[in-house]
Amino acid sequence: MFPRPLFIFLSLPLFAGTAWSQTAATLRSAADAAGLNIGIATNSFNVTNASYAAVAKAQFNLVVCENEMKFESTEKPIGKFNYKPGDDVYNFASANNMKMRGHNFVWGGQSISAMAVVTNRMNGLSTLRNHIDSVGGHFKTKILEWDVLNEITNDGVNGGLKGIFWMKAIGDDYADSALVMSRRVIGTNGYLYSNDYGADGVNPKSTAIVAMAKKWQTNHVPIDGIGFQCHLTSPVNKADISTNIKRFGDLGLRVSLTEIDIKDATPADWTALMGACLENFNCVSFVTWGLSDANSWIGSSCGCLLYNGGTPTVKTNMYQAVMDALKAADPTIAAKRKAFTIIPAGSLGPTAALSYFTRPAAHRVGALGSANSPVPVFLNGSGTLVDPLGRVKTIAPSAFPAVDILPR
User: Fold this and answer.
1) Do the Cβ atoms of 27 and 33 come closer than 8 Å?
2) What integer pLDDT is reported at residue 7 of this predicted model?
3) Contacts of 102 (CB under 8 A, 6+ apart)
4) How much is the mean pLDDT over the chain?
5) Which of 68, 145, 151, 279 is catalytic?
6) Is the pLDDT confidence value at 314 over 80?
7) Per-residue pLDDT band at 386 (split at 50, 70, 90)
8) What pLDDT is stored for residue 91 in this prediction?
9) Cβ(382)–Cβ(13) under 8 Å?
10) Domains plus CATH for the chain?
11) Can you tell me the distance from the alpha carbon of 362 to that of 348, in angstroms, rounded to the nearest whole number?
């Protein structure tokens, strides 16, 4: 028998006012009001540039290393780790109250050091485990969202896993293994993602990812979110992307738009993409793959980001389209997003109907008792304890005094 029951409460307002973002002066403040992470891909050199840094920290609340936390950037040769570039970006983020994504553990590209040694299942799993143990362990308290898996799904109508070197050596459970290893190392400090391109709308590839996510959930393989890379070309199909985001929301999964660039973009394209995200409570992050066209992997003439030039100059029409979309966000959906995003990593799964609960358990702390816990629980109209997705959460006297991963 445990010495005392665990009672969990949350004192967080769930309702947003109707004018909550109308006075926002920056993308960052407007996104904060909508409960959305808005960010950029960057590197340890750019964040030391004064003009670049000034724009980044004023307009965005999240960063991700474009290349400096990939396999061969953090471990080359095998067993020799370099965390400094990632730490430099994290230090910039931390100093400016920004969050950070981790990109990535497992990919078929930029992994030459791993390809050189991974030849069979045994050394493949060992290499993968050592990398995740080391890199994940170093950054575990610094990262909000982890792209554990990157671009693992086949293109075209057949879906399935790509035949990358990890799969050839380990087998088709390499992805499951990477997710399990990541949860063991990172715990509930960060959300675990599978990130992919060409699956932003409803198509055979995204449908294959839906099936894969369901299989992971059925088999209790830890997965918290899906990344849509959103390397797009004008025009952007808002309805298609929004429908796809909702499909994963129906599974209780986060969606992050992780590597956005829109080639030859118009303001309408930015309005459409931000709108698709904002109308779904489970769309939690909106990240452009660079700050300025000058930083884009596509090339400086891509017309694909919100700024131009080495000294970032705002594209006023594009910027204003994003700002206007944020200011027009539905406050009811924003409140749902805020409730959803505080569910701890490891707790996500199939949802019940999402609705509001008028009496947070904190309002009855005298009756329920209290404990320090990150797990949000509310009282619904019938007095049942539920999480923000409406799932019943039984808090029993035999509960452990700390919660790492909630039961589904």
Assistant:
1) no
2) 28
3) 64, 69, 136, 139, 143, 145, 146, 147, 190
4) 84
5) 151
6) yes
7) low
8) 98
9) no
10) 1-21+334-408 (no CATH), 27-328 (3.20.20.80)
11) 22
Please give the single-letter amino acid code of residue 221.
V
**Structure token digits, residue 140:** 């575990």
Q: Which pTM value belongs to this model?
A: 0.83
Tokens found for residue 123: 């050394």
Does residue 37 sit in helix, strand or coil? strand
The more confidently predicted of residues 401 and 384 is 384
Backbone φ, ψ for residue 5 (5° rounding): -70, 155
Look up 259 and say whether it is catalytic: yes
* Distance linking the first and last C-alpha atoms of the chain: 23
Given a cut of 80, whether residue 384 has pLDDT beyond it is no
pLDDT at 13 over 50: no
The radius of gyration computed from the CA coordinates of the chain, to the nearest angstrom, equals 21
Rounded Cα distance, 213 and 76, in Å: 31
Q: Which helix (H) or strand (E) holds 263?
A: strand 254-263
- How many angstroms separate the Cα of 66 from the Cα of each of 54, 199, 253, 288? 19, 20, 24, 10
Which tokens belong to 258? 């992780």
Q: Which helix (H) or strand (E) holds 226?
A: strand 225-228
Q: Containing H/E element for 332?
A: helix 331-341
Q: Is 156 left (phi over 0), alpha (psi -120 to 50) or beta?
A: left
Give the whole-angstrom CA distance, residue 110 versus residue 75. 11
Active-site option among 72, 75, 145, 259: 259
The residue-averaged pLDDT of 318-342 equals 95
Structure tokens at 347: 């707790």
179 SS3 class: helix
| Dihedral sign (CA 171, 172, 173, 177) | positive
| Contact (CB, 8 A) for 40 and 77 | no
Q: Has 72 been annotated as catalytic?
A: no
Helices (H), 147-278: 165-170, 174-186, 204-218, 238-249, 267-278
Q: Where are the beta strands (DSSP E) in 47-153?
A: 62-65, 99-106, 145-150
Residue whose token pair is 């839906």: 210
Which residue in this structure is represented by tokens 């992994």?
111
Residue labelled with tokens 């474009």: 66
Q: Which of 93-97, 139-143, 392-396 has the lowest mean pLDDT?
A: 392-396
